[in-house]
Amino acid sequence: MKQEFRQSILDALSNPNLTGALGNFSVAYRAGRAKAYEGIDFEALRTEIAEIKSTASSHFDELAEQFTKAAEARGAKVFRTNDPKAVKDYILRLAQERGVKSVVKSKSMATEEIHLNKHLEKAGIDVQETDLGEWIIQLAGQTPSHMVMPAIHMTKEEVATVFSDKVEDGQKPDIPKLVKFARGKLRPMFLNADMGISGANIAVAETGSIVLMTNEGNARLVTTLPKIHVALVGYEKLIEHFKDIAPILTALPKSATAQLLTSYVSIISGPTPNTGGTPKELHIILMDNRRNDMAHDPRFKEGLQCIRCASCLNVCPVFRLVGGHVFGKVYTGGIGTILTAWFGALKESDEIQSLCIQCGSCKDVCPGKIDIPELILELRRRLAVEQGQPMIQKAIFSVVNNRRLFHTMMRAASIGQKPFAKDGFIRHLPMFLSNMTENRSLPTIAAEPFRDRIKKIKQPKCAEKAAFYGGCLVDFAYPEMGEAVVKVLNKAGIEVIFPEGQTCCGAPARYSGAYEVAAQNGADNIKALLAEDVKYVVSACPTCTVALKQDFIANLEAVGRTAELPAARQLSEKVLDFSTLANQLVEEGRLKFKPNLETSKFTYHDSCHFKRTLHADQTPRKLMKQAGYELVEMDECDMCCGMGGSYTLKLPEISAPILQRKLVNIEKAGAPLLLIDCPGCVMQIRGGLDKRGSTIKVEHTAQRLAESLE
Amino acid sequence: MTAILESSALIESFKARAEAVSAKVEQFATKQEALDLIIRLLQQEGVDDKPHCWAVWAACPMLGADDKTRLAAAVPGLKFDVTRELAADAKVGISQFDWALANTGTLVQGADEVDKRLVSSLPLLHIALVSTAAVLPDLPGVLTRVDPLKSAYLAFITGPSRTADIERVLTIGVHGPERLIIIMVDDLEVAA
């Protein structure tokens, strides 16, 4: 990671205006969005949108042709091009031919993508952004920090200073007054402008219509007052049918700003008369600029289902800390990372893709049903293929994959760490490792890994068997979690075996883009786990469970090892996470809760993969309530804890404040017990609470359940 | 007929949604009552026959010649011939809408005629008239009724102009009106 990029992260993190504004917004947004979607079947709505947009991107050229014919039949002029420079030249030439001296713009990211303003200004044309946020950053000489709220990083004091310095002296930091001031200053610019430039939220092929949405009303003025209107539309805004405007218009404002509808929507289908009676000159530019390339990529086509609501920014635990400037100049956040890689170049996404912690929050709320985290992984994979893996990463994988060597090293480390270990925690690490323990204590490495400890457990001989998949954390750091799993399953009459050939689940390699390594990990595990005659394969780690259930298949597919897919699918069918299996056994009457158990209140942290990939989040809550525990939900219970596997090592600056916010929410819940289904989250949160001197007990659900059963 | 009976729930929903986004909604049984209110409103606002005090009323099917005469006599400064200059200098803009949407509190209008857009975007107060019978359930409902080949500029308005671009603080009245008064009239025809 380049120093410059890391510095931009540090700058953002140390900007209290930015983190404060975004942090507060993320809380308000969650509640507001939920309310806006009340009574609406979001899954059905986004499935409809995904289908509309996906069908459109399969036929971009036909739709562009259809749009052109329809719009030209209505009297508009349509210019189609793949080339951003041709767009700029077209608009400049038009402006010069018509003697245009001043332009008013309503918000358009496509114009930002091609740096249109600079091009026109160089030719001596005055260009004014009229969206308040865009105007502020234009005056300040900055770039947008959020796709929908471009100036969210600035305080009213800063805005007052910008207005005073650039427009008129003496502006006070009073928001209604600042807004009035902007109205007063921009109004004559609207009235005097020779040309209005807009983007479009939607372009309808069958009618040649464009749809513009604003809250301020600036798009109405931009399209009404000047005699010439130019709309710059990316191909991805095309849809085929007029009626298909409805679902997009229904979702976009709800997902963007938690509004039922923006204050103004204009659907323009051809020129209308100007004041004075002359017909408006309407030019619509359809710009490809790599949209078609993206549509022809089987993995990234999905990214074109984006309707630019920015909800992926609003729910992102990383974005709310660092804001948009870290991402670059135009498209920000999760989807912005993907669009930057395509509309710019793959290598432009090299650093920003590493910001994704893979928590999956954005995937759940995307109204275009885009699997953003998966597409970011695909970027990572392609970057790794293109640029090769860093040396240090290669070295780590070679150790991780060799379990015997890994054991030896971990054990050596476990002994080596003795001077730093106390009560099962490493609180300080020397020298270059110090930032690993700055914000949370790390667990000590168990003297004896679970794979050895299980041999000493006296298990009943049972006809029914389950294979336990340990994963690195249970095996080396938390063997007691593995023992709890064995205890519970034994009570249900299931014998647990630990197939010795199991190795790393491949998640570290996959999440680093090293798919060849990940696929080999999968193949080794498939062989080891299918060799045993067992009914279930169970894991107490959701990341491992997802690997066994889904990623082995995906990784083998990604590298073309199709012959091994049937075995991967066979394994997938046997795999269950611990809580789901335990719940199944309770429902079958094979596990009974202790009567009169001494219980307490507990709060529950949703681990990312456990909730958003396995969708098992309600199961442990239900089990523990059945055991007699009282659930107290914490705020943002399903927000990532900042662990993200190796993320915490790669970007500790970001991981740490995510964890701090989680810890505050846990403490605010006021329960003495925190249950989690993921050993990674346990490591992160238990360590964080330890650093804060908290007395809250943190356990894996398996541990508490083992004590709650007869 | 059933549709009209069922529409009372739609009307209530429309009012609630529109008021939730800071519009003010009134309902009258007859056009004459609605016009009486408008006269009172314009007088209260200080509409007068001098610069910065005009009210501009865009072409409006509900107004007959005699209505215009009555209104003009009652309110000096009320203009029916809307120009860009008058609208930019007016206190109040008035226009009639074709439909209203119950689930979002939205007004919908075929606004090819530029004066319709001038009066609803330039003055600080916008008074919107709509037939009570023109309330439709939702967006899909209106999109099947409008014909983009007939209306080249379809305008949807939901509450007054707003922004939250500075510190996310909701502020009403940026580039468009800061007040929207919606007057529903029971005895008006609904557009075809």
Question: What is the compact description of this entry?
Answer:
The complex is a heterodimer of chains A (710) and B (192). Chain A is built from 34 helices and 21 strands. Chain A has 710 residues and is α/β, with parallel strands linked by helices.
| Major sheet size, sense and barrel closure of chain B | 6 strands, parallel
- Beta-strand portion of chain B reads 25-35%
| Helix proportion of chain A | 40-55%
Shape by Cα distribution of chain B: globular
Number of helices in the DSSP assignment of chain B: 6
Number of domains of chain A: 4
Q: How many strand segments of chain A?
A: 21
The structure class of chain B reads alpha/beta
What summary fits the major beta sheet of chain A?
6 strands, parallel
| Arithmetic mean pLDDT of chain A | 92
CATH class of the largest domain in chain A: Mainly Alpha
Strand content of chain A: 5-15%
| Total domain modules of chain B | 1
State the assembly state of the protein chains.
Answer: heterodimer
Most extensive chain interface and residues per partner: A-B, 66 and 48 residues
Account of the 3D structure:
The complex is a heterodimer of chains A (710) and B (192). Chain A is 50% helix and 12% strand. By secondary structure, chain A is α/β, with parallel strands linked by helices. Chain A folds into four domains: 1-36 and 312-377, no CATH class; 44-130 and 194-292, NagB/RpiA/CoA transferase-like (Rossmann fold), CATH 3.40.50.10420; 400-587, Glutathione S-transferase Yfyf (Class Pi), Chain A, domain 2, CATH 1.20.1050; 601-708, Rossmann fold (3-Layer(aba) Sandwich), CATH 3.40.50. Chain A has a six-stranded parallel beta sheet, sandwiched between helices. In chain A, strands 8-5-6-9 form a four-stranded mixed beta sheet. A four-stranded parallel beta sheet of chain A has the order 15-14-16-17. In chain A, a hairpin with a 2-residue loop joins strand 11 (421-422) and strand 12. In chain A, helix 16 (333-344) crosses helix 18. Mean pLDDT of chain A is 92; it is low at 426-436. Chain B is an alpha/beta fold and 192 residues long. Chain B has a single domain (2-185), classed as 3-Layer(aba) Sandwich (Rossmann fold), CATH 3.40.50.10420. In chain B, 33% of the residues lie in helices and 27% in strands. Chain B has helices spanning 2-20, 31-44, 65-74, 84-88, 114-121, 139-145; strands at 24-28, 54-57, 78-79, 90-97, 99-101, 106-110, 125-131, 135-136, 153-157, 162-163, 171-172, 179-185. In chain B, the strands form three sheets. Chain B has a six-stranded parallel beta sheet, with helices on both faces. In chain B, helix 3 (65-74) links the parallel strand 2 (54-57) and strand 3. The longest helix of chain B has 19 residues, at 2-20. In chain B, 52% of the residues are buried. Chains A and B meet through helix 2, helix 8, helix 10, helix 11 and helix 12 of A and helix 5, helix 6, strand 9 and strand 10 of B. Strand 9 of chain A pairs antiparallel with strand 9 of chain B.
